[in-house]
């Protein structure tokens, strides 16, 4: 299986936006996100990556089909809910590059594509010369959550292996509709950081 991982051009984002939205919805249906996704919301969300000149979507291709995607952009171009904990703790926002999400179809996992997503986003972030930190956040779910599969393996060890440290003091809330819920509810998101200088 030969997989190519590379940054999408703006034209490609526009052409692929509906398949990227579908991919995100498919992957985020699983625990711990258990997200009842909407294409309309996802397409709107992905357009943010066209509006920020330093944003990037890194895609994994099998032949010419996108089977995974990871997102990143400067924290300054993110929503206030993402910026808030950094503002409150006195970080200089212009030195922080934020990694949105990584999603990969199940059958392609465990082959190094997740690591390539980190590497490509980090290379992109560091190419500007302005950023001292790369960061992302992860949802915090109770260990006894009823939809947690018995064989669920948290990604913490993977993130640590990529040089990221969990910062429980940096947290925020995102709202989305869980599967089997009627309305959106708030989810606690905790940040992880890698320092570059
Ligand atoms: C996150 C994700 C993109 C990782 O992709 P991947 O291609 O499987 O990751 P890689 O193969 O590059 O590396 C995973 C490494 O972490 C280890 N690991 C630790 N916990 C893991 C877990 N829960 N799942 C997969 N690998 C895990 C693997 O053993 C592997 O290390 P190794 O190469 O030393 O054996 C993929 O698991 C995914 O799409 N998950 C669902 C969506 C998600 O949770 N995204 C992250 C938050 S937005």
Features:
alpha+beta; seven-stranded mixed beta sheet; 7 strands; 31% helix; binds coenzyme A
Q: Radius of gyration over alpha carbons?
A: 16 Å
Compute the number of helices.
5
Structural class of the helices, strands and pairings? alpha+beta
Main beta-sheet strand count, sense and barrel state? 7 strands, mixed
Taking the alpha carbons of the first and last residues, their distance comes to 37 Å
Q: What general form does the structure show?
A: globular
- Order of strands across the main sheet: 1-2-3-4-5-7-6
Oligomer status: single chain
What proportion strand? 25-35%
H-E string: EHHEEHEHEHEE
What is the share of helical residues?
25-40%
Q: Which cofactor or ligand species appear?
A: coenzyme A
- What ranges have pLDDT less than 50 throughout 5 or more consecutive residues? none
Q: State mean pLDDT (0 to 100 scale).
A: 97
Tally of DSSP β-strands: 7
Note down, in words, how this protein is organized.
The chain has 197 residues and is an alpha+beta fold. 31% of the residues lie in helices and 31% in strands. A hairpin with a 2-residue loop joins strand 2 and strand 3 (65-74). Helix 1 (10-28) packs antiparallel against helix 2 (39-51). Coenzyme A binds next to strand 4, helix 4 and helix 5.
């Amino acid at each position: 299986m030969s997989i190519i991982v590379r940054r999408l051009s703006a034209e490609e984002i526009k052409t692929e936006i509906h398949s990227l939205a579908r991919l995100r919805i498919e992957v985020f249906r699983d625990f711990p996100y258990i997200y009842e996704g909407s294409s309309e919301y996802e397409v709107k969300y992905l357009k943010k990556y066209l509006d920020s000149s330093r944003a990037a979507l890194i895609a994994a291709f099998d032949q010419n089909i996108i089977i995974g995607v990871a997102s990143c952009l400067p924290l300054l171009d993110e929503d206030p809910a993402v910026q808030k904990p950094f503002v409150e703790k006195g970080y200089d926002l212009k030195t922080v590059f934020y990694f949105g999400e990584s999603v990969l179809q199940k059958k392609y996992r465990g082959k190094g594509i997740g690591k390539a997503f980190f590497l490509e986003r980090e290379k992109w972030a560091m190419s500007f010369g302005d950023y001292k930190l790369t960061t992302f956040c992860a949802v915090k779910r109770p260990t006894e959550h009823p939809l947690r599969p018995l064989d669920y393996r948290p990604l913490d060890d993977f993130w640590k292996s990529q040089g990221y440290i969990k910062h429980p003091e940096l947290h925020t809330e995102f709202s989305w509709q869980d599967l089997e819920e009627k309305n959106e509810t708030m989810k606690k998101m905790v940040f992880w950081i890698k320092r570059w200088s």
